Each structure stands twice: as C-alpha cells, then as structure tokens.
Amino acid sequence: MRIDVLTIFPDFFTSPLRTSLLGRAIALERVHINIHDLRTWTHDTHRTVDAPPYGGGAGMLMRPEPFFEAADELWPAQRPRTLVMTPRGRPFDQAFAEELVQEPHLAFLCGRYEGIDERVHLHLATDEVAVGNAVLGGGEVAAALMIEAITRLIPGVMGNEHSGIEESFSDGLVEHPQYTRPATYRGWSVPSVLTSGDHGAIAAWRYRQAVARTRLVRPDLLRRDND
Fold first, then answer.
1. What is the CATH code for 171-226?
2. What is the pTM of this model?
3. CATH top-level class for 2-151?
4. Most buried pick, 8, 47, 67, 223, via CB within 10 A?
5. Is the dihedral of CA 101, 106, 110, 111 positive or negative?
6. How are beta strands 2-7 and 188-189 bridged, if at all?
7. Which DSSP state fits 195?
8. pLDDT tens digits, 78-95
C-alpha cells in the first residue's frame, strides 16, 4: 500500500510514523508513507496557503490551488482514493478501515483554519471522513488515527493475525474484558471461567460479556443491528 499525506505541518507525523505497529509496517515495507509539505505548491514569498472566505465570516480558508497542483504533480496518471477530513464526513469506524485497507493507494488531505475550499471537496476528494463528533484544529490528528487503524490490518503487520479479528467492533460489539497474570491482585481475582480450560465456556462467557458491555457503553451499536 502507498499512502500520501498533504499537510502544512509535515513534522507532525515524524513520531507516529516511527512508533509501534506503524513503524513496523514501514520497516517491513508493507506500506510506503509519503508526507508532503503543501507549501511546496505555493508561488509567493510567504508560501501562502489560505485566504479569507468569500461572503465574509470568521477565520481563514485553505486555498484550492496547492491541493490541485500537488495532485497534478504527485498523481499525474491515476488519482488515488483521496480522503479529506471534515466533521460533516462519513463516520470512520472499523468497517471503513477494513474497506480502505483493500485500496492500493490512499491520499489524505489535511485542512487547517476554517477548512478547505469546497472545490477541493467536490473535484479532488473521493471521500469526506469524520473521526468523531468534535472539531479539531486540523486534519493531521484525524489522518494519523486513520492511518494507524488501516495499516495495522495489512497482512503481516500484527504479530498475531487473529488480533485483528478478536477485538472491538470486529463483530459489531465492543470487546469483552481481558485479564492476565497474576490470577489475584489486591484481592481482585480473575473470573474462574477463564482459568477453567473449558474453551466452550470461555467463548460463551466472552460473548455474554461483550453484549453486556456494548449495551452499557455503546447501545447505539445494538440499535444499529436491529434497524
């Protein structure tokens, strides 16, 4: 997989790209990630990427030219699936990550200020994506979150391939509680079923716990299944 990121803060990605599974994916050449400084495609002394919005309003808006010129130079033959982060976008979830990992080439457009000129949304981006019901200072945090969620699903990145299956949201539920050594700590003991060796009973317990926890903390997931 190839991933391109357009941002005015390329240094933001220095640490995330070297850390944990994402660093492993890059080291194993399972994914090639290129961070591009959007100001490379500006033409004035101040390397300006923003301007006031037409019609007035607070803040500044990112201009369309750097995004389109970057796309023309970086992807002259075939445009990748191109994602722009915006609160109005499609909610990002595990199913979306599993969809995007099938793509050979992704591009992330990171906005700042009051956002990006609508023509980028309409004529360059293929997807508008929201990572939550909150407004961020820019698209970099959202892009980093999505890249990590996607790349960990690439075959060979996780040490245990079952880790991507037996986890939250993989079956529409949040994950069941998990325990490790010691069996008793400060008077709190691991549920006895988990040390019983009865794999059928363990599976049944985990499913019941996942349903109960989902009902408690994410009832919207259960309602979605019933729609």
1. 1.10.1270.20
2. 0.84
3. alpha beta
4. 67
5. negative
6. unpaired
7. G
8. 999 999 999 889 999 999
